[in-house]
């Protein structure tokens, strides 16, 4: 019989333990995985816009059109081996979410408008909310999604729903609704056709407007609206601004809510400028404070499109815009139309002042906004004007961070029913801006675009504008 000496048994057990520990250690040392389907964005300074922190030493891995993983440089080197051609070195560059235009219009029958989509992309805009839709725009939306048309992804509102007489007269090509009873069926039709939201307009009767708001809520459709004239003359403030409110477009119809003097409030004025101009001439700061307070308390989204009034009311600004290369590249029909509106500067100064008073109060009360421009209205260069609106918010008192959020994170919150995950998260579409300079330091640095990334594809701004 073999004699088991105690020291031999101890040595044997120690050897087993050592072998077991070494096995665990070797098993834990994962061999880096060779991948040819990934792109690594490495060595960037990342602005995730959750706060003003600049993230370093993080690698953003892309697979096809989305974020595959975010991990530290150390973890990346440990876990993956990628060909050199698949590693984008961002030394000295900043990476941030791409921009969103939340109020624009396009005319598919105009041969130049499709080109303006590409120009939008060159300025880092990867999504546009189109505010008056038709079947042709739905076709554009599908074609862009299938990479048949170059441009930002589109979110398209249904055709404008207005009352009698439609604000745009013979140019109105949407439904005209004068009585209740149509909202459910019309919203069902808009939803079935693939539109993303319902657009309500200025001459709708108040009872029809509120019926559409309720019907859209039941069918889980978003609504954007100009506050109808009749609502302005009859509804109480709490009826206009509450948790069921649509997103409100522009501040030009807010005049009757904040006017200092008692003025005649006509339910259906012949001249639509009456509410957008006459009743905005003498605003009451206390009333503006109260309206903004209601907007904040009820978390009502607004897209002021303040750049529209700012650009069209300042002769020096107009002259500067008309000297830009971007302006020279616009079609002659648009330039002629814009030039013909210069005589409206005095009226637009009134509207610009109203916008500035609202924006300054919103900055003080820290209200969330959505950046929009109302292109192709006068002196709004496609894409370029989005940056101007961001900069304008800063001029009105918003921090650089809040102004950037209004064109990035807040549009994401608008579209998502729940609070969205952080922007740089696994599964999100790879839509980014690569910048040469940090816009959190100087907001004008939004223009320092090195590359635009849309769904994992890299674009040169210069090439997109050629």
Automatic annotation (TrEMBL):
The keyword Hydrolase applies. Signal peptide: none annotated. Residues 94-457 form the Amidohydrolase-related domain. It comes from Salegentibacter flavus. PANTHER family: ALPHA-D-RIBOSE 1-METHYLPHOSPHONATE 5-TRIPHOSPHATE DIPHOSPHATASE. This is Amidohydrolase family protein. GO terms for molecular function: hydrolase activity, acting on carbon-nitrogen (but not peptide) bonds. Pfam families: Amidohydro_1. InterPro entries: Amidohydro-rel, Metal-dep_hydrolase_composite, Metal_Hydrolase, Metallo-dep_Hydrolase. Keywords: Hydrolase.
């Amino acid at each position: 019989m073999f004699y088991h000496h105690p020291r031999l048994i101890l040595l044997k057990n120690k050897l087993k333990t050592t072998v077991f520990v070494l096995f665990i250690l070797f098993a834990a040392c994962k061999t880096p995985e060779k991948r040819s389907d990934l792109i690594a964005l490495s060595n960037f300074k990342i602005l995730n816009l959750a706060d003003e922190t600049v993230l370093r030493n993080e690698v953003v891995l892309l697979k096809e059109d989305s974020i595959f993983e975010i991990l530290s440089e150390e973890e990346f080197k440990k876990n993956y081996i990628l060909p050199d051609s698949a590693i984008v070195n961002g030394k000295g560059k900043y990476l941030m979410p791409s921009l969103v235009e939340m109020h624009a219009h396009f005319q598919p029958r105009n041969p130049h408008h499709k080109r303006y989509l590409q120009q939008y992309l060159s300025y880092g805009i990867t999504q546009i909310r189109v505010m008056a839709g038709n079947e042709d725009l739905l076709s554009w939306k599908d074609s862009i999604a299938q990479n048949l048309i170059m441009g930002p992804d589109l979110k398209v509102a249904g055709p404008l729903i207005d009352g009698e007489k439609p604000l745009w007269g013979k140019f109105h090509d949407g439904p005209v609704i004068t009585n209740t009873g149509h909202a459910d069926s019309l919203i069902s039709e808009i939803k079935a056709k693939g539109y993303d939201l319902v657009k309500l307009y200025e001459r709708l009767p108040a009872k029809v407007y509120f019926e559409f708001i309720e019907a859209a809520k039941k069918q889980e459709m978003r609504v954007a609206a100009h506050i109808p004239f009749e609502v302005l003359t009859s509804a109480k403030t709490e009826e206009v601004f509450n948790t069921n409110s649509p997103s409100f477009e522009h501040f030009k119809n807010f005049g009757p809510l904040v006017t200092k003097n008692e003025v005649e409030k006509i339910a259906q004025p012949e001249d639509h400028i009456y509410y957008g101009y006459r009743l905005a001439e003498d605003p009451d700061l206390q009333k503006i404070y109260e309206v903004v307070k209601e907007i904040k308390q009820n978390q009502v989204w607004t897209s002021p499109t303040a750049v529209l009034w700012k650009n069209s009311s300042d002769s020096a600004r107009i002259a500067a815009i008309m000297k830009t290369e971007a302006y020279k590249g616009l079609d002659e029909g648009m330039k002629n139309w814009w030039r013909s509106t210069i005589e409206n500067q005095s009226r637009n100064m009134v509207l610009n002042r109203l916008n500035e008073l609202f924006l300054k109060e919103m900055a003080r009360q820290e209200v969330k906004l959505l950046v929009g421009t109302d292109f192709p209205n006068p002196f709004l260069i496609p894409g370029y004007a989005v940056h101007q609106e961001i900069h304008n918010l800063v001029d009105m008192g918003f921090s650089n961070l809040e102004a950037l959020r209004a064109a990035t994170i807040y549009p994401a919150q608008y579209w998502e029913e729940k609070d969205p995950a952080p922007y740089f998260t696994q599964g999100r579409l790879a839509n980014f801006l690569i910048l040469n300079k940090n816009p959190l330091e100087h907001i004008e640095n939004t223009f320092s675009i090195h590359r635009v990334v849309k769904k994992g594809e890299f674009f040169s701004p210069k090439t997109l504008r050629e």
